[in-house]
Amino acid sequence: MRYTLLLHYPEMDAASLGEEAMAEGQRAFSSYATALHQAKVLISAEVLQPSSNTTTLTKAGGTLRVQDGPFADTKEQLGGTFVIDVADLDAAIEWAGKAPSVEWGAVEIRPGATYTVDGAWTPNA
Amino acid sequence: MDAERLTHAEARAAAEHAARASYGHLVALLAASTGDLSLAEDALSDAFEQALLSWPSGGVPANPEGWLLTVARNRQRDTWKSASRRTSLPLEEADGNGGTAMSALDELDVDAIGDKRLELLFTCAHPAIDPAIRTPLMLQAVLGFDAARIASAFAVPAAAMAQRLVRAKKRIKAARIPFAVPGRDAMPGRLPAVLEAVYGCYALAFLDAPEGQGGDMAAEALYLAVTLAALLDSEPEAWGLAALIALSQARAPARRGPFVPLEEQDTALWDSRLMEEGASLLRRASAGGATGRFQLEAAIQAVHCERARTHATDWAALRTLYAALVAVAPSLGARVALAAVIGRAESPAAGLAELDALAVRDDPAGAAAVEHFQPFLATRAELLARAGRRREAAEAYNAAAGATPQPAVRTYLLQRAAELGP
C-alpha cells in the first residue's frame, strides 16, 4: 500500500536558522532517505523550495488566475513529500515518526488511491 | 438433533446462540484479510439468514461456527467477483488479491485458532480512529450490537450513529488500519482505548438488560476483559478492569426484580464465586504496581463486597478510594460518588456542600450538566432525606426519577418521593 507523507512545518531560511542547524537538518533528511531506501519502501521523495517561490493557479468564473504565493497562507507550509510503499498504516506511522521534521512540524500520512506506471493508472493495493 | 422435528424457533435459537458466542470472532476472521469490516458483517449476516432458512429442515450442523464461516466466506467471494467485473480489472488480478485471502480462510480450523476478537478490538481503538466512535465501533463489530441500540446507549439519533459507524469502517479499509495486537512499544498508547471500550460493553449490557441483570453480554464483557488481561499479562489496568467487571457482576442477582440500593442489598444473594474471582483478579492487578482508574474502581467494588463478610460498609475506605479516583480520573460520576461517600463518612450536610460545589464548578455548562445527571439528582435527594429536609428531598427524588431511563430505578425513586411527600 502506498502512502504519501506530507511534511508541514514553519519555513525557515539559512539566515534565520543558521548554517550549522541547516546542515544538521540536511544530514538528518539524507540519512532518513537512506533508511527508507535500504528498507526498500521508498518510492520517491521531494524536498520543496520555500512557499515564497510558489505560484498558485485558480479558475474562478471561467477566468484563469495566476497568483503569487501558496494556496493556503498559513504559518506552516508543505515542505516536502515522501512516497512510501509499506504493508499497512501502522508501518506508515512508524516511518512517519522517524521523519526529522516531526521534531518541528506535522507529518500527514495520506493513503494513495491510484498512481501511474509507465503512464498508465494503477490502483493502490 | 432430530432434523424432522427442528422447528423454526429452535433453529433461530441455535443460530442466535452461535451469533452471540462467535460474532466478533467470525467478523475478525472475515475482515482481517481484506480490512473490509462492512463486507465481513454483511456476509456474516447473510450467513445467519441462511442458517435460519436451512437449519430447520437440515438440522443444526455439528460445527455451527464453521458452517457460518464457510457460508459467509462464499458471500464475500461472490461480492469480490462481481466487484472485479464492475471495475473490469483483469480477473487474475482480482483472484490474486481475493483468492489468496480466500485460500487462507479455506485452510482455517475455527476451533484451532486463538480468539481473534482481541485483534479486532485493537483495530477499532486504533489512534487513527476518532476516539468518540471507538467504543460504538467495538460494540458493533466485536459484540454484534446494532446501531440503534448503540445510539440509544450513547443518546444520539440512530441514523447519525449508523453514519458514523459506516464512516469509521470505510476509514479502516481505505487507510489500511491493520488487524493486529500492537507491540510492547505501542501498547501503552493503545491500551486505554481498548479498556474503555470493553468497559463500555459492560455498561451497555447493563443498561440494556431488562431486569438489571446484564446477562450474556455482561458475561461476554467479563470474558473479553479476562482474556485481554491474560494475553497482555503484565498490564495492571487490564487486570483492574477484569476485577471491576467481575465484582460488579457478582452483585447482579441482587439487582433482579425491584431496585434495591447497594447498601440495602441482601449479601446472601451476591455471587461468592464471582467475588472470589474478582478479588483474585484485583490482587493480580495490584501486583503490577501503578494504580490506575480501573484498579481504583475495582477496589471500591471490593470494599462494597466486603460487607458480605463484615456486615458493615467501610465508608472511610471508600472515601480514600474515591478521592484517589477523582485525582487520577476526574469525572462527574466520580465526583458525585465522592460527595455521596462524604455524606456518609462525615455528615449529610458535608456531602451536600460537595454536591453544591459541583453544580457551580464548571459554570453554565457544568450546572446544566448536573441538572440532567441522574446520579447527581439521586445522591442529592438521598442526602437531603438524611439531613431531614423532607420536602426538598421529595422534590429531588421526583427530579431524579425524571432523569432515569431504567424503569425499576424510576419506580424506586418515585416510591421514595411518595414516602417523604406532603
Automatic annotation (TrEMBL), chain A:
Protein origin, superkingdom: Bacteria
Segments forming a coiled coil: none
Domain YCII-related intervals: 1-111
Stored InterPro entries: Dimeric_a/b-barrel, YCII
Alphabetical list of Pfam families matching this protein: YCII
Family classification: Belongs to the YciI family.
PANTHER family: BLL7171 PROTEIN, BLL7171 PROTEIN-RELATED
Name this polypeptide is given: YciI family protein
Species for this entry: Arthrobacter silviterrae
